[in-house]
Every structure is written in structure tokens, then in C-alpha cells.
Specification:
The protein is mainly α. The longest helix has about 40 residues. It starts with a helix and ends with a helix. Helix 1 runs antiparallel to helix 3 and helix 2 packs antiparallel against helix 3. Strands 1-2 form a two-stranded antiparallel ribbon.
């Protein structure tokens, strides 16, 4: 990587990253709302999804939640990786 842990820490404390996190939180809330949505429409008395379709749909939503979690953890993972690389470089490995 072409940057230091300090540079990354500065970026992850920046307004840009905070805006990204805020957008991810918005996405997460929308996904959670969708996961909580009923599959039965009380007004029409009909199913909005078949059980199989709902299972596939929900799995996609849960995958999106996992991706959001990975994005949130990205700063720490990158910084730790860089610090480990610096330690290896210093020790001559």
C-alpha cells in the first residue's frame, strides 16, 4: 500500500469517511426495515412473496448487511494490516 497507518487514520476520521458511514447507516436501516416487512398484505389478503421467494430475497438482504459490516470494519483491518507490514519490514522478514 502506498500510505501509512497515520494517513489512513486521518482519512477514516475525515468528513468524507463519516459521510460514507452515514450513508451506510441509511442503507442498513432500509434493509432492516425491509427484513421486518410482512409477507402478507392484510388489506388485500394476499401474500406479497411466496415462502421460497422471500427466503431468497431475505438472504440477499442479509448479504448486504454483511457487506455493510465489512465496510465499517475496513478502517481497522487496513490499519492493522499496514502496522503488521511495517513491523515485518522493520524486523527484516
Amino acid at each position: 500500500m502506498q500510505f501509512s497507518p497515520d494517513t489512513l487514520e486521518d482519512f477514516f476520521e475525515s468528513l468524507v469517511w463519516k459521510s460514507i458511514i452515514k450513508e451506510l447507516e441509511s442503507w442498513e436501516n432500509a434493509i432492516l426495515h425491509e427484513l421486518a416487512a410482512p409477507t402478507f398484505d392484510v388489506q388485500s389478503g394476499k401474500m406479497t412473496f411466496s415462502k421460497g421467494d422471500r427466503a431468497v430475497f431475505d438472504e440477499g438482504l442479509r448479504g448486504s448487511l454483511r457487506a455493510i459490516g465489512y465496510m465499517r470494519n475496513l478502517p481497522q483491518m487496513m490499519i492493522e494490516s499496514l502496522k503488521q507490514k511495517e513491523q515485518q519490514d522493520e524486523s527484516g522478514e
